[in-house]
Amino acid sequence: MKFNKLRGPLEGIRILDLSTVIAAPYGATLLGDFGAEVIKVEMPDVGDPLRNLGPYFKGEGLRWPGMARNKKSITLDLHQEEGKDILRKLVSKSDMVIENFRTGTLEKWGVGYEDLKKINPDLVMIRVTGYGQTGPYSHKAGFGTPATAFSGFTYLHGYPDRPPISPSFSLTDYVTGIYVAFAAVTALYHRDCQDEGTGQYVDVSLYESMFRMMEFLITDYDQTGTIKERSPGLSGHSAPAGNFLTKDGQWIILVTSSDKTFERLAKAMSREDMLTDERYHTNSVRLTRFDEVNGIVSDWVKTKTKDELQHLLDECGVPMSQIYSIKDIFTDPQYNARENIVEVEHPRLGTVKIPGVVPKFSETPGSIRQIAPDLGEHNDEILKKLLELDEGTIASLKEKKVI
């Protein structure tokens, strides 16, 4: 795939990405996919720790190419006054700052929101922390896995007779990144499209991103006192639901989230009798016999191969999928048709495959315009062209390790 020059709906928006690792940088990447100019500000000689997180191949961190695409990299030491001065100059020419320092850090350095707003009253700042900018935990260090536990999410996952389990990848960070992108475009819309629109900062926390999705826990506990315990799959919502093993040894997942869907499943199973049987005829009664209902479905699934089952349930309109590995994904025609995996040029690995752009816009699609940058790759471009610094000044900044 050649890099696309399409700019997308956020063309003309300039974002300073001061953040590191996953949550906030992922949000900035999503904005970059849709045309925003994202300038990633990194410490000289160090850079974003994500550059060096595994997995690795030939000495290259393999998370970096997909995470930091569509960004420009400059190095800037914000501990030094000259570094802060350059940041202030960049802020004066930018729309947004995205940061995830611990609460109060930028204020301590003299470049907090109120400081930067004096330079650029229209500035939008997205602030990402583990626990938010306020409250008794606001100054605690916050990483995704502890925040996931704090949100109540981890408590739900695992088997009742074993310890709770955390997600096997940085789920909370990525979910928070989506909130970052959502907050960014919402704040920009308010600033640019409302009569009294103005810049503002948005307070995003890791734990709240997960907690917001669990309304079923909150109201249930409030009204009934129920503490939902962990289970290895869907439970307490619909029956049948879960993982089932086919005749040819393939794991599939099947769920019936409405009585209409169960009606279609019952017909596919030739078990129309369950539709009038008072033990099974509605979701509420099926839930009281969850294991029994799942057992009936499990016994039936074992009589079909995966392909037979997929064909039959697709024809009947029952949601079902094989549980895919990444190998399965790489060969699936739906992923190919949607360009969910694309191959791009890499300066040292030759080519690499990374996720495609989602969602799909009909008129102003996003694009991958460049691979993730090397550390400080765009120093000269930004300092010379954007800030109009001369060669001597830039040389002095390099000598002082400001950049």
UniProtKB/TrEMBL annotation:
Q: Which UniProt keywords apply?
A: Transferase
Record keywords: Cell membrane included?
no
Keyword set includes Cell inner membrane: no
Short name of any one Pfam family annotated for the protein: CoA_transf_3
Report the EC number(s), separated by commas if there are several. Answer: 2.8.3.16
GO MF assignments: formyl-CoA transferase activity
Q: Which PANTHER family match?
A: SUCCINATE--HYDROXYMETHYLGLUTARATE COA-TRANSFERASE
Q: What is this protein called?
A: Formyl-CoA transferase
The organism named in the record is Bacillus benzoevorans
Source organism phylogeny: Bacteria, Bacillati, Bacillota, Bacilli, Bacillales
